[in-house]
Design brief:
Two copies of one chain form a homodimer. By secondary structure, chain A is of the alpha+beta class. Chain A folds into two domains: 124 residues, 2-Layer Sandwich (60s Ribosomal Protein L30, Chain: A); 155 residues, Phosphoribosyl-aminoimidazole Synthetase, Chain A, domain 2, CATH 3.90.650. Chain A is 36% helix and 24% strand. Chain A has twelve helices and 13 strands. Chain A has a six-stranded mixed beta sheet with strand order 1-2-3-6-4-5. In chain A, strands 8-10-7-11-9-12 form a six-stranded mixed beta sheet. In chain A, α3 runs parallel beside α8. The longest helix of chain A is centred in the N-terminal third of the chain and has 18 residues. At the A-B interface, α1, α2, β2, β3 and β4 of A face α1, α2, β2, β3 and β4 of B.
């Protein structure tokens, strides 16, 4: 049997069952980051591997943006646990004919984000490779109690930070009409969200410190897919109100006809998706100011383990046609073939 | 200018200058592992990226061995700082048609070593890739004072654990005559050292705890090359006594005619190479028993910054023709194209 028949989630489960669990592991495989303790302290740790032509395409991204984003997606994983990133290891596989100027550009992108969040690059590995390979490992400081994917209960509210779908829409515009995109300020704003996502460190950290989030994940695969991870881990179902999904002005202007399609399934938003008890509604709302990002209530957790249901204004289910993205089974989406263990 | 003109060490230096150094970094880029502290404690961290056909070739290694070795080379980096490994993140890029049985085999190899040293796999990332890519990050517990590459002084003794050259010799035998190798117990013993190197955790840890090593590194690129890293970092030179190099019985039997060639330049021994003050000679020697590995004094540190000189029994320099391996400038050695930052 080969890997593609096993499928992505079968693969992750198989790996999870095959690795030994030792002392000091408070959270292991299966969440946004691991939480470990040893003799000297406690850390959150996460890693991502990005491969040219699988996860990125140098036709559609500059090296500055690639450096920025490689770090950003890992910081986002730390944010989703409520932690604060501190250190990063960056390993590169580099083609022998790669331009040094391009490498400098890549590191400028890494540093731009690292500086913003006080993250230091502490090491890594450089290699010759046939194509560009980027492996990032980030170590962060956990809150007193990191927020997991499990922990949501029926009746909990569902929230998301920022706006959804901009990243996927921006990428589509770029691919369809790079010239037109350059002329449109709105389209450029969307694309920036694809290339330089904002890890929601402050929001995640506040939610954890104030014990408000019962479950949390960052939106990398798409809202429905990532919410279904929370549902699975928490053994609940979820109802999402389609009309409440937060869409940016640029999204509304450019893709009004396509409705919430990109917001529901687009992925790579790197916003935080979390659940909270209804009695904490006012406290969650109040958080927006300090977190520097909007927080929108988009649904509710239900008892039935029927996964995610998206409903319209009348409460009627909308067929989303989003069966969830499986990297190994399907090869049709070049930008999202990765999955954190 | 492209990367290959810059060369490996130029590249590492360029990266080192381009990343910001922040708080909490006690040792950053340029040693075997980084040493960091944050609000919750102190850790050693190291990472390696292994790429099919660059660092390994599935014609010459089983997946069990590959899993074992992928972890072993990282544990060895922790050993070289005097630390104890605790956790590992393992990210894989896997071809879509990869056999599940092969993946299980890989994890059996990882687990065999992890169990031996009490290391837990806490996460990582799985991806689709064109060829097999393995990215490992290991987090360890530092000793009170981690041992760096700098710190050796003229007059210090130079030691190495175990025996040298077995790994490179074993690999050569395998490539030249796989059938013959299978029939020779000695040759198989050499090859096992290539496929399943022993990270010298106990030796490294004892040397650090007892404050005996003034500088330390693990032998991955070859004795002369790695000793020159110590020389460079410590701003000293080194004299190595060719006749004192520790060779295994198998090495002597099989490659007697080729002298110490593999021991000096072969690489991938993953033994510890360290310096110590002469007045600690008895204490270093005594360590062997507890560390479970032979420790051999092979040379002495000198003031001249002339790099590494290998001398014969008469004290006359031997031309080693080992100019140091540069992964980006030369493409002739498929197994060692990596370098830790």
């Amino acid at each position: 049997m080969n890997i593609s028949r096993l499928g992505e989630f079968g693969l992750i489960e198989r790996i999870r069952r095959r690795v030994r669990v030792g002392r000091g592991v408070k959270i292991g495989i299966g969440d946004d980051a691991a939480w470990v303790t040893n003799a000297t302290g406690s850390s959150l740790v996460t890693a991502d591997l990005l491969i040219e032509r699988i996860h990125f395409d140098l036709r559609w991204t500059s090296l500055f943006q690639l450096g920025y984003k490689s770090l950003a997606v890992n910081l986002s994983d730390i944010a989703a646990m409520g932690g604060t990133p501190a250190f990063a290891l960056l390993s590169l596989g580099i083609p022998r004919d790669f331009e040094v100027a391009g490498l400098d550009e890549f590191y400028r992108g890494v540093n731009a984000l690292a500086r913003e969040f006080g993250v230091t690059i502490i090491g890594g590995d450089t290699n010759v490779a046939g194509s560009l390979i980027i492996s990032v490992c980030v170590i962060g400081t956990p809150p007193r109690r990191p927020v997991r994917r499990r922990g949501a209960r029926p009746g909990d509210d569902i929230y998301v930070t920022g706006t959804l779908g901009d990243s996927a829409l921006g990428l589509r515009l770029l691919k369809e009409n790079p010239e037109g995109l350059r002329r449109s300020r709105l389209a450029r704003a969307l694309l920036k969200r694809h290339h330089q996502p904002d890890p929601r460190i402050e929001a995640g950290s506040l939610l954890a410190r104030r014990n408000l989030a019962t479950a949390m994940i960052d939106v990398s695969d798409g809202l429905v897919q990532d919410l279904s991870h929370i549902c699975h881990a928490s053994r609940i179902g979820a109802v999402v109100w389609n009309e409440r999904l937060p869409l940016s002005r640029a999204y509304r202007r450019i893709a009004a006809r396509e409705g919430t399609r990109y917001a529901l399934g687009g992925g790579e938003d790197y916003e935080l998706l979390f659940c909270a008890r209804p009695h904490n509604r006012a406290r969650v709302e109040k958080l927006q100011q300090r977190a520097g990002v909007a927080i929108t209530r988009i649904g509710t957790c239900v008892a039935a383990a029927g996964g995610v249901t998206v409903v319209d204004g009348m409460g009627l289910p909308i067929p989303t046609l989003l069966k969830g993205h499986d990297h190994f089974k399907r090869a049709d989406r070049a930008e999202r073939n990765s999955s954190a263990l």
